[in-house]
Amino acid sequence: SYVLTQSPSVSVAPGQTATITCVGNNIGSKGVHWYQQKPGQAPVLVVYDDSDRPSGIPERFSGSNSGNTATLTISRVEAGDEADYYCQVWDNTSDHVLFGGGTKLNVL
Amino acid sequence: QVQLVESGGVLVKPGGSLRLDCEASGFNFSGYYMAWIRQAPGKGLEWLSYIGRRGSPIYYADSVKGRFTVSRDNAKNSLYLEMNSLRAEDTALYYCAREDGEDYFDYWGQGTLVTVSS
């Protein structure tokens, strides 16, 4: 079955750039979506279809997807960006939605 | 504004049954696929089920197929999850979410907590 792998945590200083990856076999052929989840809150969509942003999401959030790796990039990281981030795809082989295990972004 | 409000989460014994409800407002409910997604305490997100605009197609995760049943009532703007043969590992916060048409979830409820314990 298809698996999405994320690093458990990423740490970055305020003002720097955070890079969160999601690895899957030929993930570049799929549409990848990213969610931000802060403690005690429901997930929020921050990037869809690899690189599009919903309205209200800052331009600091961007995404890319190629080969076996999809990437969420957060520029000029702020303390308020500290959260768990999940990637998600639709696997049309199994007709299942799949989430990565999540990456905790720590803002130092 | 779009709102999704889940209800029905309680403490239930192993082997028991439960129905979760999700009431939608602020959008044309019948025009969207809907989904159930859960999150066990301290764990990641787990997709459970999808239901199409008119009740089909329906898809289930392997972990709940045969035990959980998703349904909807477009006249009542409501989504349901019937849960049977509950296990301790079903303990989680259960979210309903709207699928935007391109396999991602643009709105989520705040979740309802299901605890399975004797």
Quaternary organisation of the protein chains: heterodimer
- Backbone CA Rg of chain A: 13 Å
Mean pLDDT reading of chain B = 96
> Helical amount among residues of chain B, as a percent range?
under 10%
Q: Please summarize the sheet with the most strands of chain A.
A: 6 strands, mixed
Estimate the mean pLDDT confidence of chain A.
97
User: For the report, how would you describe the main beta sheet of chain B?
Assistant: 7 strands, mixed
Would you kindly provide a written description of the structure presented here, covering whatever features stand out?
The complex is a heterodimer of chains A (108) and B (118). Chain A is an all-beta fold and 108 residues long. Chain A has no helices and 10 strands. In chain A, the strands form 2 sheets. In chain A, strands 2, 4, 5, 8, 9 and 10 form a 6-stranded mixed β-sheet that branches. A 4-stranded antiparallel β-sheet of chain A has the order 1-3-7-6, with no helix packed on it. In chain A, 39% of the residues are buried. Chain B has 118 residues and is mainly β. Chain B is built from no helices and 11 strands. In chain B, strands 2, 4, 5, 6, 9, 10 and 11 form a 7-stranded mixed β-sheet that branches. Classes of the chains: A mainly beta (108), B mainly beta (118). Chains A and B meet through strand 4, strand 8 and strand 9 of A and strand 5 and strand 10 of B.
Short note summarizing the structure:
Chain A is mostly beta strands. Helix content of chain A is 0%, strand content 47%.
Features:
heterodimer, A: 108 residues, mainly beta, 6-stranded mixed beta sheet, 4-stranded antiparallel beta sheet, 10 strands, 0% helix, 47% strand, globular, B: 118 residues, 7-stranded mixed beta sheet, 11 strands
What is the topology?
The complex is a heterodimer of chains A (108) and B (118).
Chain A: E1 5-6, E2 9-12, E3 18-23, E4 33-37, E5 44-47, E6 61-66, E7 69-74, E8 83-91, E9 96-99, E10 103-107
Parallel strand pairs in A: 2-10
Antiparallel strand pairs in A: 1-3, 3-7, 4-5, 4-8, 6-7, 8-9, 8-10
Chain B: E1 3-7, E2 11-12, E3 18-25, E4 33-39, E5 45-51, E6 58-60, E7 68-73, E8 78-83, E9 92-99, E10 105-108, E11 112-116
Parallel strand pairs in B: 2-11
Antiparallel strand pairs in B: 1-3, 3-8, 4-5, 4-9, 5-6, 7-8, 9-10, 9-11
